[in-house]
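User: Sequence in, structure out. Go.
Assistant: Echoing your sequence, followed by the structure tokens.
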Amino acid sequence: MKPVPRQTTEEADFVKEYMLLPLMLDVLERDRSAMDLANLKMSEVYGGLIGLLQKAATDDLSRVRKSMREHGMKVYEERRTSIGIEARYLCRGYHYEFSMLWGLIRAEIMQRLCCYLGIDIAEKGIFS
């Protein structure tokens, strides 16, 4: 049996983003719903901000899906568990697995949202 070749860092990042971006969209939609129920003075502005974040995440997800197709990659199984997310995928004809814990997922989503907004997380001490 011949060994499975290593995937590139870029290919591994595609799968990570492919899994994280839909979760981020879920979080943003949940927050939008919560804002709709809240009695906020500037709800239109905050709703618009969430809309911009959703558009950025959707654009990134489209880019990732296109890149995965170009690299011959396909996620064929996704699971959310009590400890995180798991995926099985095909890359250049070989099968691989990916998993991530919820704590890391939360940090990654927060980091991406801060990046979209131009917030320097080190300066603001968000993860402190």
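User: And one key feature?
Assistant: Strands lie at 73-80, 84-91, 94-101.
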